[in-house]
Amino acid sequence: MKTEQEYIRDLTEIRSMMERSTKFLSLTGWSGIMAGIYALIGAYIAFQLLDFNGHDVALYNRNIQQLPANGPELVILALTILLLAVGTAVFLSYRKSRQRGEQLWNAAARRMVINMAIPLFAGGCFILILFSKGILDLIAPSMLIFYGLALLNAGKFTFGEMRDLGIIQIILGLAAAYFTMYGLVFWAVGFGLMHIGYGIYMHVKYEK
C-alpha cells in the first residue's frame, strides 16, 4: 500500500496537471522586468527628448485644432514600447514553454489572451477618442486603468499575482486622473517600476 507521502505526491502531481491545463503558466518574470525597463526608457524620452511637459498637458486647451506638435512622435514612441514589450513577452514565453515541453498557444493561452484583449481593445479605442478630441491629460490615466482591468480579467487564467498587479495599475490610474499634471510620472511608476518589481518577484518565486 502507498504511504501518506506517496498519496500527497500523487495529489500534488494531479493538481499540477490540472493547473497546467486550465492556466497559462509560461509567462516569465523577465518579460515583466524588460517591459518595465522599456517603459522607463520611453518615459525618459518623452520627458527629455520630446520636451513633454505634464503641467502643459494638464492646462492644455482641449481643442482638436491645438493638438501638440510632438503628438505623432509620442504615439510612435508608445507603439514602439508596446511592440517591444509584447515581442519580448512572446519570445520569452515561447522559450519557457519549449523548455517545459508544452505548447505556447494552448487553450489556457487563448482564454487569457481573449479576456485580456477585450479591455485593451476598448481602452485603445477610448484613448484614440481622447487624442482626437485633444483631451490629452486623461490619456495616461486611461492607459493605466484599462491595462489594469485587462490584467484583472486575464489573471483568472494565469498566475494570481497578475490580478494584484492589475489592481495596483487601476489605483495608479485613478490617482493619475486626479493629479493630471503628474500623469506621465504615474505612467512611469505603473508601467515601469511596478512591472520591474512584479517581474523580480515572479522570477524569484517561480523560476529560481
Structure write-up:
By secondary structure, this protein is an all-alpha fold. The protein has one domain (28-207). It is built from eight helices and no strands. The chain has helices at 4-22, 29-48, 54-58, 71-99, 107-133, 139-154, 161-178, 183-207. The two termini are 35 Å apart. Residues 17-22 have low confidence and may be disordered.
Given as residue ranges, the uncertain stretches (5+ residues, pLDDT < 50) are: 17-22
How much helical structure, as a percent, in the residues? over 70%
Annotation, overall tally of beta strands: 0
Reported for the largest beta sheet, the result is: none
Keywords: Membrane, Transmembrane, Transmembrane helix
Transmembrane segments: 24-47, 74-92, 113-132, 138-155
Provide a compact summary of the structure.
This protein has 208 residues and is mostly helical.
Write the layout of secondary structure elements.
Blueprint: H1 4-22, H2 29-48, H3 54-58, H4 71-99, H5 107-133, H6 139-154, H7 161-178, H8 183-207
Transmembrane segments: 24-47, 74-92, 113-132, 138-155
Keywords: Membrane, Transmembrane, Transmembrane helix
Can you tag this structure with a few keywords?
single chain, 208 residues, mainly alpha, 8 helices, 76% helix, 0% strand
